[in-house]
Design a protein that fits this description.
By secondary structure, this protein is an alpha+beta fold. The chain has one domain: OB fold (Dihydrolipoamide Acetyltransferase, E2P) (Beta Barrel), CATH 2.40.50.140. The chain has 7 helices and 7 strands. Strands 3-4-5-7-6 form a 5-stranded mixed barrel, surrounded by 4 helices. α3 packs across α7 and α4 packs antiparallel against α5. The longest helix is centred in the first third of the chain and has 20 residues. The protein is globular and about 60 Å long.
């Protein structure tokens, strides 16, 4: 009986000791968990050169053509140059090419931009974001090969959209000049959402070149 009691005591002590233990992930397990975590910046970087830029370059029309068609028949413009999510009431987002002259620049704000004349009348036709902050999610929303249903929830979808803007700024916009922009030529390919009446289209570039005056 005494032996049985001793055995019970040992088993109880072992159980208590085990209950106080912590199981620590090995380094390999931690790496696997990190690799599987949602990383929107990585997702964007992986498709940028191979899918995003080629898609926009193929889908885009001259801005003047896109804007004119969108003003009269947004659905026709969308079918030819645009994309929108099937779910909800999202507006069309259009792919376009800009070739014009900068007529005004705002570089003091974090959401800096240049206003561009594309038809030679010295008036702004489109506003091009030059960062570092970019409003909206035009690049994400212009792509027909990504959609909300591929993501866990609205938060991940929003983070994914923001990561396109972060990539654009790091890869393109932070390298642009900030002084003496007015009067210089600009070429860009990118996307913009259908603007509200009387508003300048808000264009986000995926490629951009600013030349001389």
């Amino acid at each position: 009986m005494a032996g049985f009691s001793a055995a019970c005591a040992i088993m109880l002590a072992g159980a208590l000791a085990l209950g106080g233990c912590k199981f620590v992930r090995t380094e390999d397990e931690q790496k696997r968990a990190a690799a599987g975590a949602f990383n929107p910046e990585r997702l964007v970087a992986e498709i940028w050169d191979t899918k995003v830029v080629p898609y926009l370059e193929e889908r885009a029309g001259p801005f003047e053509d896109v804007a004119a068609l969108a003003a009269g028949d947004p659905d026709a413009a969308g079918a030819k140059y645009g994309h929108k999510e099937k779910q909800g009431n999202a507006p069309w987002t259009f792919a376009a090419r800009i070739d014009g002259t900068i007529v005004a620049a705002e570089t003091k704000s974090r959401a800096a931009y240049v206003d561009v004349d594309v038809d030679g009348d010295s008036k702004a036709d489109v506003r091009v974001s030059i960062g570092p902050a970019i409003r909206g999610t035009a690049i994400r929303d212009s792509l027909d090969f990504v959609n909300f249903n591929e993501f866990k929830n609205q938060i991940e979808w929003a983070q994914y959209g923001k990561s396109f803007n972060t990539h654009v700024n790091g890869a393109l916009l932070e390298k642009l000049p900030r002084e003496g922009l007015t009067g210089r030529s600009i070429k860009a390919t990118g996307a913009y959402p259908l603007p509200a009446g009387g508003q300048l289209p808000q264009f986000v570039p995926a490629t951009i070149t600013i030349g001389g005056s």
